[in-house]
Design goal:
This protein has 381 residues and is an all-alpha fold. Helices cover 78% and strands 0% of the residues. Helix 4 (69-81) runs antiparallel to helix 5.
């Protein structure tokens, strides 16, 4: 049986009197119930079993407003009501549960859910579920800065997709590989893959994948400082998008492009609207970090301090942490606090280096040189 260490670690580090602890406990017990059910070849779970009672009691302890609760309840119902079923019957809700976890910034738990689903799918040779689980796993690992493991997951997904003639899933996994290359600073390789994905998606009418490819190409152009091209690509991608959360992620990238181009008025309008309406923590935090950068560049001390306070202590993902400290350092430098600026930039560089975020390291070095500071890499030499 799987151990679900991420859940155990979270339970150990969270106060047992909180709603967050009860939600994690319920998720852990549901996953253990599913493990036992699948290990028993999907036989019916007795309604009077002690394990089931513990799960139901944990679910009853969750708040009605907890977004995970309805999905966890559905998973338990499937286990109770299904005879001789298996992975396919619970895969959709497991994906939904994992997505809610990463929407709410619980990336370690999301990783556990997708890894568990992949393990169960591989055990019964369910290729379609395995491909999707590997793609989701690759995304979470990418966001957590575990690039080698992410690359492995995306590569496996792309190979399986090719073997089953699923061009759509192949393109999704292939784009994930490009994202890893981009974070690692291999922009030419990333661009080659993205361009191939865009061509294939357009040729086969894969609209969602075409939009995602254009979004990624836009982000790549932002990283290169080609802001006009990034804006044009982003605006084109928007015309293919329907889902609000997907649009908001792209709008944050567009906001960043407008910041780079110097149009802070449009950037603030775009980013502020995303902050107000998005339900995805990561998207909101990316928008707030861009607004922190704008406040620093505009020498708006009140806005800078407000954004800094909103973000302080909330960031989980390494890329977001590094960029937060990067712009925190920029603000401190502009507001004539050189020691705090140097400390913030050192923190940014340490985080970026630890996770192989070469592109972010370069940005930090450029920022420090522009401020008359010696970048950490040069100091170490």
């Amino acid at each position: 049986m799987l151990t679900h260490e991420a859940y155990l670690d979270t339970l150990r580090s969270t106060r047992s009197t909180t709603a967050e602890w009860r939600a994690v406990l319920a998720g852990f017990l549901v996953l253990r119930l599913i493990d036992a059910w699948l290990d028993d070849d999907g036989h019916l779970v007795p309604r009077d079993s002690a394990g089931l009672h513990a799960v139901q009691e944990a679910l009853a302890g969750m708040r009605d407003k907890d977004r995970e609760r309805p999905i966890l309840c559905e998973l338990v119902d499937m286990v109770i009501q299904s005879e001789h079923s298996g992975v396919q019957s619970i895969a959709s809700q497991m994906f939904n549960y994992g997505q809610i976890l990463h929407f709410t910034n619980q990336w370690g738990l999301a990783l556990d859910v997708f890894a568990s689903l992949l393990s169960h799918a591989l055990a019964v040779q369910d290729q379609l579920t395995s491909i999707w689980a590997a793609i989701r796993l690759g995304l979470v690992l990418n966001q957590l800065g575990q690039m080698d493991s992410s690359q492995d997951a995306y590569t496996l997904a792309s190979q399986w997709a090719l073997s089953t003639n699923r061009l759509d899933l192949y393109c999704i996994a292939y784009r994930g590989i490009a994202l890893n290359y981009m974070y690692l600073g291999h922009c030419n390789e990333a661009e080659r893959i993205i361009d191939t994905t865009i061509v294939e998606a357009e040729a086969h009418g894969l609209t969602d994948i075409l939009a995602a490819g254009l979004h990624t190409k836009s982000a790549l152009e932002v990283s290169r400082g080609h802001y006009g091209a990034a804006i044009q690509l982003g605006e084109t991608a928007l015309t293919y998008m329907d889902r609000p959360e997907v649009k908001d992620r792209l709008l944050v990238n567009l906001g960043g492009a407008f910041v780079g181009s110097g149009d802070h008025i449009i950037a603030k309008k775009i980013l502020s609207s995303v902050v107000q309406r998005t339900e995805e923590d990561q998207t909101r935090q990316r928008a707030l970090i861009n607004l922190l950068e704008i406040a620093a560049k505009d020498r708006d001390r009140v806005a800078f301090d407000r954004r800094r306070c909103e973000l302080h202590g909330t960031l989980v993902l390494p890329d977001l942490q590094a960029h937060y400290h990067l712009y925190l350092g920029k603000g401190h430098h502009i507001f004539e606090n050189p020691i705090a600026a140097r400390d913030a930039w050192q923190d940014a560089y340490t985080i970026a280096m630890a996770h192989g975020l070469a592109q972010t390291c370069t940005k930090i070095q450029i920022e420090m040189v522009a401020a008359g500071e010696v970048p950490p890499k040069l100091i170490s030499q």
